[in-house]
Amino acid sequence: MFRPSTRHNIPSSSSNPALEVKLNKRNSGINTSNNGGGPSSRYPYRLNFYERPPTLDITLEEFETFAIARLRVLSQIEALSHRSLPFTQLQQSITNYSKQHLLLSSNTARNVNLDEERRKDEISHWVLRLSFCRSPDLRARFIRSELALFKNRFETDDINERSNFLKSLEFDWQIVDESEKSRYEKELRSCMWGNKDDAFKNESWFKVLWYTVPDLVGSRRVFIRAGMAYVPQSLQISLVLQAFASRLEKALELTAKNLPRLDEDDRLGPVIDHLASSFLSGVASSDYQSPDGDSSGALVTAEMVDDVARKHFPPCMRNLYDRLKKDHHLKHFGRLQLGLFLKGIGLPLDEAVVFWRRMFGATMSDDKFNKEYKYNIRHSYGQEGKRTNYPPKSCQQILTQNQPGTQDSHGCPFRHFSPDNLINFLSSTYPSIDKSSNEMRDILDSVKSTHYHVACTRVFEITHGIKKGDGIGENNEPVTHPNKWVDRSRELEKEVIDRIKKNEISDEMMIDA
Amino acid sequence: MPVPVRDDPMTDYDASSPQVMNAFYRRLFPYRPFFLWLNQDQVPSKLFTHREFAFTLAGDVYLRYNSFHNADEFKKELIRLNPSRFEIGPQYSARPRDRKTLAAGALQPQRRELVFDIDMTDYDEIRTCCTDKKICKRCWGYIAAAVKVLDYALRETFGYKHLLWIYSGRRGIHCWISDQSALDLNDDQRKSLVTFLEVIKGGKEQAKKVNIRGNKDEADLHPVLNVALENLKQEFVRLVLHDQDCFATERGWEALLNILPQDRELIGNLRRDWQKDPTRSSVNKWGDLVSAVAKLQGKNQLLFKKYERAMQDVILQYTYPRIDSEVSKHRNHLLKSPFCIHPGTGRVCVPVNPELVDDFDPDTVPTVGELLNQLDKAAMENGDSQNSQRRTEEYEQTSLKPYVEMFEKHVAAVLRDSRNAKRSVKQESMEF
User: Does the entry feature the keyword Phosphoprotein, yes or no (chain A) (predicted)?
Assistant: First the structure.
């Protein structure tokens, strides 16, 4: 971390006004002139846990350009992770992208300036820590992206170098001895998927407190007893990643506490601010924004919802809406998912209140409605509480957040319905999809291979009479947001109406002629 | 004061009346053990002073972010506000009551007991005796089975010692874990623990809610779940087949057939037989299924294995704990305090001994009305000697006594461990 420097090492205005910033003079003995091929003592390994802050001179220009290079890689990683690519493809594109912007070679590489690469990697990491430590949200996103980058490098690293690197970290993992191994043989075996005899004999286990490997616990990939998780060597990476993430998290919190005391002239501040905000704006595009400014033209009233629902709602919203019509009620997350979506298609707040009041029907008293529901509706329009104007939920959020409980109806039908119910739902909602048709089989195949958005896009194509593979945009995009479905669906309708109008006009002209 | 003698000295106390609640808070609520339980020390620590309390007052007024310096202040305020119920949150990074004077985002939840909530509503689709808000001794069986599985998993698998099970007053049960390592868990760790334990997943439209065998649905069960399954097999026979008779109606048996692998012959035969003789008991129907599957063995080994796994999943779906996972995942989730009065039933939220959970009968839990009557009666019997009796706590004269004693025993164990933990930290720091 860049220590808040004391007065005396601030470059005074009389000293070189060029781009040299001395962040910290302490221990700047490492020079960067080591142009030899081999690794230096400062950077013996390609991988780095970033434990010691760099204490060397850097120029302002480097300060910014290094950071921007890393930022590119991190925001690319974040964008990729939202695109639900298969694992290998994801790794490949991360590797390619970081080769372009933040090349990092292993010790065996020839003809590269290893120190220079590693210095860039280190400095860019520490600079970004400064810009990303400031809010819990930024910290979480920074850690997630850094973790993905580290993981990618870890997995592509030279095996010898990696094991030396791990040794240098000196983890105190407890090794499970033979007697304990044979005592829990049955249990350990059943946690090894595809258990061959010699694979079991050769495997060795570490014993760690269960909460140091939450991901392995959550996915039930390790045996746990008396609070200890038995982690096989093959899953060691989880332990390393966990250590990386928790150390980084602690360090970032510390940086956040000390940042206000960072004593600097006003040259670094703007750079740091700018870095964080460009990260935010670069990725915000995955949120839904109303396609055109004049939302007044697309206003929907409570009366119109039913009509729009029939014509333009995607399956998830149709399901919620139908259920609401039938039960006169939805559970909390269902109301949230449908409510924000309706806001997105242009239902203003006062109409939304009317809509929900009507849907709940006479069984609910006015009193109860006003007390328990109106607040939430107003809240989701940013009129209560912390006044955030929440965007409609994207498919990504619907698929992964707030999984439906036993009595809930929200979520994605392709993901959260059992196949039989999905077939019934689709065929009864969209008469153009027959139960035993090829299209239905197509859709179910996509669902089975967990490509829910592909299945949903297929439904869009069928119900709107467009070609398979056309998708919902100019670039044949798949459905990634319920509101984008609506936009495209309305566009298509407009095109049809325009065409009819044009035909009428030309008909009239024919008559005139 | 001696009341004029009547034939029937019972007064009809109404739990929804403020006077009754006030009498309860003044005379019966076990403040001392309650404070020690949350605080884990004799002197007020951050675990108490930085802890959020939320009160529900008459007319649905909800007061959040209250905190107190010590047990006396808490008692005074509780009596003054006289809430119909109150909830406990986490220890924050600062005193929650000061939150308006703090910088935005400075009030962060830090430590909190690991909590679980099991509610009967999640069982509505598989219980046949009651619906909605009702609960009886029979449907309590589901809760009892859940408690046993969860208690075992939390103790044996995760190594926790200080589990406090609390009846929620109507149709559910809560669990509070006060171990030091449980207090320190962050939200991610809590979430992973819950995901590990959670087996029943899926909404209304998902017929088969147990999917725990990997992508191909053919992996072995995790050893911990295997142990749970072994224990649940008996519960399944006793509870689901005999007591609840879950597959008696057409709706019941269709639900069963729907979650099995769809082999046309096997399922078709069963459906035909059962439609022909709908009076067959659940035990017999399950027997039909078992023998139909047994016939597959040797003939069609693949299908046999598939059905064998599916039947294990059925047992889990009908008996494995259905946890309200959101409650456990986040430190800042509020949960109703032990020894509150349930506003609907008037029953006290009392501790439940997990070893005797089978014998627990929600109908025998004391109501606030009963307790106050017992106090009246005791006062009458003691008459003038009341002054000399002042020293004892009043709950000792009521049927609340065994529950408070159970609570105190739990608290003593928590305190002992917390003291040892502190001592070892001290010794360590002395070594430097």
Answer: no
Question: Can you give the residue range of the structural domain that contains A223?
Answer: 174-238
- pLDDT at residue B134 greater than cutoff 90: no
For tokens 């087949």, name the residue: B241
Range(s) within chain B of domains with CATH label 3.90.920.10: 18-194+323-431
Pair A15, A102 in one domain: yes
Residue A133, annotated ligand binder?
Answer: no
**pLDDT of the residue at A285:** 34
Mean pLDDT for A277-295 is 47
Residue B391 pLDDT:
56
- We report the CATH number of the domain holding residue A98 as 1.20.930.80
A416/B202 CB distance under 8 A: yes
B52 is catalytic: yes
Together in a domain, A102 and A207: no
Q: Which of B119, B235, B243, B370 is catalytic?
A: B119
pLDDT value at A33 more than 60: no
Given CB atoms, is A49 within the 8 Å cutoff of chain B?
A: no
High-pLDDT (> 70) share of chain A, %: 83
Closest by CA to A291, choosing from A481, A452, A76, A468, is A481
Same domain? A107 vs A217: no
> What angle in degrees, to the nearest 10, is found between the helix axes of B282-296 and B301-319?
150
In a domain, A436, yes or no: no
- Residue B159 contacts A where some CB pair is shorter than 8 Å: yes
d(CA B127, CA B133): 12
Residues A25 and A46 in one domain: yes
- Residue whose C-alpha is closest to residue A477's, from A326, A286, A220: A286
C-beta of residue A386 within 8 angstroms of C-beta of residue B104: no
With 0-12 / 13-18 / 19 or more C-beta atoms within 10 angstroms meaning exposed / middle / buried, residue B31 is middle
Average pLDDT of span B40-44:
94
Phi, then psi, of B173 in degrees rounded to 5: -145, 145
Residues A44 and A300: beta-carbon distance below 8 Å? no
Q: Report the interhelical angle of A114-132 vs A136-156 (nearest 10°).
A: 160
- Pair A132, A162 in one domain: yes
pTM exceeding the 0.90 threshold for the entire prediction: no
pLDDT of residue A278: 67
pLDDT, one tens digit per residue, over A187-225 is 888 777 655 667 777 778 888 999 988 888 998 889 999
Specify the residue for token string 């390609």: A46
- Which of the four CATH numbers 3.90.920.10, 3.30.420.40, 3.40.50.300, 3.40.720.10 does domain B18-194+323-431 have? 3.90.920.10
Q: Does A388 touch chain B (CB under 8 A)?
A: no
Flag whether pLDDT at A322 surpasses 50.
Answer: yes
What is the chain A residue with the closest CA to B61?
A: A371
Which tokens sit at B170? 């109507």
- How large is the average pLDDT for residues A457-474? 81
Q: Is residue B345 helix, strand or coil? A: coil
Q: Residues with Cβ < 8 Å from B193, sequence gap 6 or more?
A: A210, A211, A214, A217, A218, B114, B158, B185, B328
The pLDDT of A429-451, averaged and rounded, is 85
Q: Which candidate in B113, B117, B179, B370 is catalytic?
A: B117
In b/e form, how buried is each residue of A341-378, taking b as 16+ CB within 10 angstroms?
A: bbbbbbbbeebbbbbbbebbeeebeeeeeeeebbebbb
The half-sphere exposure of A382 on its side-chain side, counting CA atoms within 13 A, is 7
Q: Which of A80, A102, A213 is nearest to A148 (CA)?
A: A80
Q: Cβ contacts of residue A90 below 8 Å, gap of 6+?
A: A80, A81
Q: Which of A209, A220, A407 lies closest to B196 in CB terms?
A: A220
CB contact under 8 A, A406 and B202: yes
